[in-house]
Amino acid sequence: MQTQLAPEFQDTPEGQQAQGVLRQCVHCGFCNATCPTYKLTGNELDGPRGRIYLMKQVFEGHAPTRTTQEHLDKCIGCRHCESTCPSGVQYHDLLAVGQPAVDARLTRPLKERAMRWALIKVLPSRWFKPALKLGRFVRPVLPKLWQERIPLLPPMAPPRWPDRKKAMHARQVLLLKGCVQRSLRPHVDAATARVLDVMGIRAGVSGRSGCCGAIQGHMGDLEGAKARARTNIDAWWPWVESKTPAEAIVVNASGCGAWVKDYGQLLADDPAYADKAKRIAALAKDPGELLPSWVPLLKRRFGRRPEGSLGSMTFHPPCSLSHAQKLSSATQPGPIELGLRELGFDVNLAQRDSHQCCGAWGAYSVTQPELSRQLRDDKLKALEETEPHVIASANIGCIVHLQSGTNTPVKHWIEVLDDALTRQASGPVA
């Protein structure tokens, strides 16, 4: 695609990044076939091809309109279009600079600005948990639309971490401290630490780390996202350079993992952090990437078992796992599905649109509630056709979002694995 950058963008990193992506696009439209929002609305401007043209106009000097902004906002960021594109267009790289370029030239309505400010400031902060408690308290008197934005999860016992005195392993990894998951589902981190403990690996958490920055990044606040990345790099660096360095930074929320793996690109123009960011990005691992190396020891732990003997689940691969991290695909089962099946789990996928988005991405369920709800309901209908005892996923947003629409338990797959290990430790696994 030919493009002529406006003078204000010609010598900027943002302009060069946009131009590089735009020139890859051949306007074929294959991306629209798998775009969740295009499939719902049928509007060309709600698909990747249309949004690319909208951003192209901005970088060529045309003033963006409110319509431009609204169509970009409807993009859920699933990156399914990238998995489909025959030209390898990295659409998310264009959106990362295109959305801030639009927002810098167009003032949002006051209500919208207030909501986005609250999401950026509250979700990654220590105020999220008290705000969540308050929201749940007043939830019964709120309109239905707002009720659905306040997640309710089934009652659970407090998370149980490995005994630190007994878990002094020579090998160690870091866990992302995170933000939303820490308040909504701390059991995922605890389950991850217990599984790692079984593997002879100690899970550490730096108290100075926190939100990965994805919330800010998805909402166009690149400077805020970069600040979060720098904070985490500073928190992790002593562990990276210690005499017994952490083997990996394990990020069990696949959306956060995809973002941390992009730290190298995010801070590429920062001379103080560029090299450190590349190293951190290389260390970031989803637990699914590590599962194949765990399988031999876990098989000895469980004993030889036929597929399905450890229980069954229907697995929803998050977009951030399949399209961003490329750890699962519609045509090729990923290491999670294969590893769990080898251990003795019956792992099913939805029979149709198994890798289609559930509508959770980032704060999308708050900013675009109607589209998000439609995507969730479509996804749950496909998942529940398999009559699952439990729905498993790999991202906190997907887990909470899906659970809001079903009575079927929704868990992280590593929680399901941990449950089986716990049963095995207390007696033979049924």
Describe this protein's structure.
With 430 residues, the protein is α/β, with parallel strands linked by helices. The chain folds into four domains: 7-105, Fumarate Reductase Iron-sulfur Protein, Chain B, domain 2 (Orthogonal Bundle); 110-147, no CATH class; 171-287; 303-426, Rossmann fold (3-Layer(aba) Sandwich), CATH 3.40.50. It has 24 helices and eight strands. The strands form two sheets. Strands 2-1-3-4 form a four-stranded parallel β-sheet. A four-stranded parallel β-sheet has the order 6-5-7-8, with helices on both faces.
Quickly list its features.
430 residues, alpha/beta, Fumarate Reductase Iron-sulfur Protein, Chain B, domain 2, four-stranded parallel β-sheet
**Structure class:** alpha/beta
**Number of separate helices:** 24
Average pLDDT works out at 90
* Order of strands in the sheet with most strands: 2-1-3-4
CATH C-level class of the largest domain: Alpha Beta
CATH architecture of the largest domain: 3-Layer(aba) Sandwich
